[in-house]
Structure formats: structure tokens, C-alpha cells
Write a structure and sequence with these properties.
With 469 residues, this protein is mostly helical. 80% of the residues lie in helices and 0% in strands. The chain contains 20 helices and no strands. α2 runs parallel beside α4, α2 runs antiparallel to α9 and α4 runs antiparallel to α17.
Length: 469
């Protein structure tokens, strides 16, 4: 059964990560057909991330409350229906709305799939399973541009959404007859992990959904992201930017206050007092902000500035995909044996160094000398980072709360990417060219290196090596 659970987890996450990456390479084609320029391109990316980031926390709570399989199945059905709606969207607005629904479906997929692993595997087997999950889902995230490029150049950008039906159907077949127990209070965390009140509240409030928290998070993120994206077109002084920004920031502040006082929070703040969980999520913020910003700008630069067709721009992701597939599993195993700290410290710094190498890009453009060496270095760094990062964070969370722990970590990574993409227009100065691309890759490198420094200073090897949560 363990192998089947692993493949369900991989396929369910694969479809969400594939869609998140495959869209980037198709953005210029969407713009040519539907119009809207850079603002529409940002919204096509961020509408998905906004819904995902807003709802993934409550999805993690639902996974812990109602069971991984049930929530996973619902997520697959919603994601599949929204994918078909994206494929036939006649306007940019309808495409953006369908992307929101897609993000809602993805929010149900990711935490449930990782929680399947953490509740089925334990010890070194869990670290190895997370490494396998990381390798395959990371490959989807980074190989997506190649598949998207081929579909854009030889068919239509609409097929990048329709193709989601295949892995969704396969996952639904694997889910048939798969029954896992719903977590119970028997899996409550040790007393030295959470205060009795927090553990008791969590155990005693099963079945309650934090609707106010979900609404506050959604309003906070939506208002803030709207302002960050639209300011490039309207300007910071425009009321249509100022009002959503103020409302969004206020809602996020009230969200944190509400989560602190709620008896059944969708984001239990007590989890952040667990060292590896709190520090790991801080590192995640910088690492995934860099990954989202760098990945999007790379694909757009290769097409819109360097002039490569979509398929060749997508092909640039293949070295990264291959290296991640080959090395993520072994690095996950090593982290399970020796602890995550070294890998989480060195990996992001190596990844950032790869982006610094790309800062030499200039006219005349030469992909092989200016981009490819940096991609190789970045790929090795990411393969060192992702599995140990995931294992360190989830290994610190009690099994009963693995769903919400996974959801929080994924929410942090998606919101970090969401904000980075929303700020892309500011970083670019309104135009993408060789100069602004060099500026973007340096900013991206700094984000990765900040994640490595945070990990070096704060991550502990205790839970990985000593088995202490």
C-alpha cells in the first residue's frame, strides 16, 4: 500500500505543480490572442497563486479533519473542471476567473498529498519518500515550460490546460478503494511540542472550519496583490491602488490577531514556536520567492527579449529537471541520515550563485555561455535544498497536524511567489530588457542566499538525527 500511496501523492501534486509552471511559457501566446499586456500576464499567474495561497491553510485543516483521500478527491475534481474552463476561455477575464478556481482545487491537493506521505511513512523511509515526492513534483514544476512550449508552438496554448485531465484521471483511478484512517486525538502531539491548551483545542475542535480566518486571509492577499500589480498601470497615488492596499494590509493584520485568539485556527500560530518549523518557513519565504520570480522572468526573457520560440525557451528548463530528478532523492536520503541544516544552508547559496552567473547576460546573446552554466549551478543548489527543507519542516510537526503543517508551508511558498510576481513590474521598471533582466537575476540570487543564511543560523539537526520532535 505504501507504494500506491506514494504514487497518489506524487501524481496529485504533479498536476498542481505542472500547471503552475507550464503556464509561464504560454503567457506571450495568451497575450497575443486575448490581449492585456504584462498586467494580464501577471494576473494569469497570480490569480492561481492567490486562490492557492488564500485557501491552502483551510484546506490543510479540512484534510486533518475529514481525511486525506476525501479532500484529495474533491481537489482533483475541482481542478479538472477548472482546467477545462481555462482551455475554452474566450476572454482574458474569464481565463483569470477560471485560474482562480483552479487555484482553489490545487489548494486541496498539495497539503493532502504530503500529509498522505507523512502519515504513512516514518523514519528514514519518510525522508526517502519525501525525496521521491520532491524529485517528481520538482521535475513537473521545471519541465512544465518544455511541454508548454511544444504545445504553444505546434498546437495551441489552450492544450496546456486540457492536458491536465490525463494525470487527474490516473490519480482518481489509484484512489479507488484506498482508505486511510482520519487522524484522531490519539495522534496528539507530545506535551513539549505545543502547550496543552493548543493541543487540546486542536483535538477538541475537530469538524469546525475557520471561516473568518479564511475570509480575512483571502481579502488580505487579494487587496495587497491587486495593488502591487495594478500600481504599474495606475500609479501608487491612485485610489484604486491605495484603498485595496490599505484594506489588504489591515485584513492581514486582523487575520494574525484572529488566529491568535481563535479556538480552532486554520493557521495554529503555536506551530511557529517549533524551531525547525518556524525557521524553515522563514527560509521558504526567500527561497520560493526567488524560485517564482527567477523562473517567470527567465521564460519571458528568453521569448520576448532573446527572441527564442516557446519550445526552445521551455527546453531551457530541461537541465534543471534532469538534475532535480537525479539528485533530489539522494539528497533527501542524506538529509534524513545527517540532518537538514548543512543542505539547507549550502543549497540555496549554490542556487543563488547560479543566478549571479546569469548576470553576465548581454548583447550579443549567447544562451550556452550566458545562461546554461548558471542553470546547472542553480539546479544542483535546488536539488540540495528542496527535499531537506520539506523534511525538516514536516518532520517537526506532530503527525496529527501533518495536513495543516504541510498546508502552512505550501501557503508560505505560494504567497512568497505570489508577492514576488506581483512586484515584478516594480523590479523591472516597467520594461523587460537586458538591463532589467540582469537586475532581476541579482535580486533573485539575493533571495536564495538569504534563505541559506537563515537556515545556517536557525535550523537544528535534532529532530532529523535524534528523532526528537
Amino acid at each position: 500500500m505504501q507504494r500506491r500511496v506514494l504514487w497518489v501523492a506524487i501524481l496529485a501534486s504533479f498536476v498542481a505543480f505542472l500547471d503552475g509552471a507550464i503556464v509561464n511559457v504560454a503567457l506571450p501566446a495568451m497575450d497575443r490572442e486575448l490581449g492585456g499586456g504584462i498586467t494580464t500576464q501577471q494576473w494569469v499567474v497570480d490569480a492561481y497563486l492567490l486562490a492557492l495561497g488564500s485557501l491552502i491553510l483551510i484546506a490543510g485543516s479540512l484534510s486533518d479533519t475529514f481525511g486525506r483521500v476525501r479532500i484529495l478527491r474533491a481537489g482533483l475534481l475541482i481542478f479538472g473542471a477548472a482546467s477545462l474552463a481555462c482551455a475554452v476561455a474566450p476572454t482574458g477575464l474569464l481565463l483569470i476567473l477560471a485560474r482562480c478556481v483552479q487555484g482553489a482545487g490545487a489548494a486541496l491537493l498539495v497539503p493532502s498529498s504530503l500529509a498522505l506521505i507523512t502519515s504513512t511513512f516514518s523514519g528514514p523511509a519518510q525522508a526517502k519518500a519525501i525525496g521521491s515526492w520532491t524529485a517528481w513534483t520538482g521535475t513537473a514544476f521545471l519541465a512544465g515550460p518544455l511541454l508548454g512550449g511544444l504545445l504553444v508552438d505546434f498546437a495551441s496554448w489552450r492544450y496546456i490546460f486540457a492536458i491536465n485531465v490525463l494525470p487527474i484521471a490516473a490519480t482518481l483511478l489509484l484512489l479507488r478503494g484506498l482508505a486511510l484512517p482520519v487522524p484522531t486525538s490519539k495522534d496528539a502531539p507530545p506535551k513539549n511540542v505545543l502547550p496543552k491548551d493548543d493541543a487540546g483545542a486542536a483535538a477538541g475542535s475537530r469538524g469546525r472550519v475557520d471561516v473568518p480566518g479564511a475570509l480575512l486571509a483571502s481579502v488580505g492577499l487579494a487587496g495587497t496583490v491587486f495593488a502591487l500589480i495594478e500600481q504599474d498601470r495606475l500609479g501608487w497615488g491612485n485610489p484604486a491602488v491605495v484603498v485595496p492596499l490599505v484594506v489588504g494590509l489591515a485584513a492581514l493584520a486582523v487575520f494574525l490577531w484572529w488566529e491568535h485568539r481563535s479556538s480552532a485556527p486554520m493557521m495554529p500560530l503555536a506551530l511557529f514556536r517549533i524551531r525547525n518549523f518556524g525557521i524553515g518557513n522563514m527560509a521558504t519565504t526567500f527561497i520560493y520567492a526567488g524560485a517564482s520570480l527567477g523562473g517567470l522572468m527567465m521564460v519571458l526573457f528568453l521569448q520576448e527579449v532573446a527572441g527564442l520560440p516557446a519550445a526552445l525557451a521551455g527546453l531551457a528548463s530541461m537541465p534543471t529537471a534532469v538534475i532535480l530528478l537525479l539528485l533530489s532523492g539522494p539528497f533527501g536520503t542524506l538529509a534524513g541520515k545527517y540532518g537538514p541544516r548543512l543542505f539547507m544552508a549550502v543549497g540555496p547559496i549554490v542556487a543563488g550563485s547560479g543566478y549571479l552567473l546569469m548576470a553576465t547576460t548581454s548583447r550579443p546573446f549567447n544562451f550556452w555561455l550566458q545562461i546554461l552554466p548558471g542553470l546547472f549551478v542553480f539546479s544542483v543548489g535546488m536539488s540540495m535544498t528542496v527535499a531537506p527543507l520539506t523534511a525538516a519542516i514536516l518532520g517537526a510537526v506532530p503527525t496529527r497536524q501533518s495536513g495543516i503543517g504541510s498546508a502552512i508551508n505550501n501557503a508560505v511558498s505560494r504567497v512568497a511567489g505570489l508577492m514576488a510576481v506581483a512586484l515584478a513590474g516594480v523590479m523591472l521598471g516597467g520594461i523587460l530588457d537586458f538591463g532589467s533582466f540582469r537586475r532581476i537575476v541579482v535580486i533573485t540570487a539575493c533571495m536564495f542566499m538569504a534563505g541559506g543564511i537563515i537556515s545556517a543560523l536557525g535550523i537544528s539537526n535534532k529532530s532529523a538525527v535524534g528523532g526528537v520532535h
